[in-house]
């Protein structure tokens, strides 16, 4: 069974701090990794995607990928109360010819003013 | 404005009734997907379609049916065989293989009367 695991949280950080969200996956052949943000009652919104080992930065967000250790993380710098949401990690397992994404159950992040 | 439109936003089903959820996209995406989300759970794939007139079962296809007669449209029917249909249903699309990110519509909330 191919799985994506996330700490369900809640993860609570003060405003202005760095929030670190982690995700592990079971399929070593996975190639594409995605982070979505989902506000309560809303649909998921794509934040970042990463394909290669290392860091990828976009504004206050940094995705980090380590394929050898089979984990991907999302760092949110200068966290804001508006960042409070559930963050979903999604992995394309089995290579690019596989259209399916496997989602983790999400980590609830709360940023306290 | 390009995007994915799901309708209706809320839907109520009577016992023994089939209901159809609409999903339309004007992003010119080849692939479309249907997910189900239950409270506190991740997204589970119901059906997906890589191209017009072709679709594949996802992880939880029992009690559901789909069609893909047009590139823009991928309706989902929740049949009376689906005994626990109450959930948040999300439609997504992507431009190609699993390496491409999926983008979501606003979702449909289905409840049993």
Secondary-structure map:
The complex is a heterodimer of chains A (113) and B (113).
Chain A: E1 4-6, E2 11-14, E3 19-25, E4 32-38, E5 45-50, E6 54-58, E7 61-66, E8 71-76, E9 85-92, E10 102-103, E11 107-112
Parallel strand pairs in A: 2-11
Antiparallel strand pairs in A: 1-3, 3-8, 4-5, 4-9, 6-7, 7-8, 9-10, 9-11
Chain B: E1 4-7, E2 10-13, E3 19-25, E4 31-37, E5 43-51, E6 54-57, E7 64-66, E8 76-78, E9 87-94, E10 103-104, E11 108-112
Parallel strand pairs in B: 2-11
Antiparallel strand pairs in B: 1-3, 3-8, 4-5, 4-9, 5-6, 7-8, 9-10, 9-11
Molecular structure report:
The complex is a heterodimer of chains A (113) and B (113). Chain A has strands at residues 4-6, 11-14, 19-25, 32-38, 45-50, 54-58, 61-66, 71-76, 85-92, 102-103, 107-112. In chain A, strands 2, 4, 5, 9, 10 and 11 form a six-stranded mixed beta sheet that branches. Chain A has a five-stranded antiparallel beta sheet with strand order 1-3-8-7-6, with no helix packed on it. Chain A has 113 residues and is mostly beta strands. By secondary structure, chain B is mostly beta strands. Helix content of chain B is 0%, strand content 50%. In chain B, strands 2, 4, 5, 6, 9, 10 and 11 form a seven-stranded mixed beta sheet that branches. In chain B, a hairpin with a 2-residue loop joins strand 5 (43-51) and strand 6. Chain B is globular, with a radius of gyration of 13 Å. Chain B starts with a strand and ends with a strand. The relative contact order of chain B is 0.33. Chain A binds chain B through residues 4, 8, 31-32, 34, 42-46, 49, 51, 88, 90, 92, 94-101, 103-106, and chain B through 31, 33, 35, 40-45, 48, 50, 58, 90, 94, 97-99, 101-107.
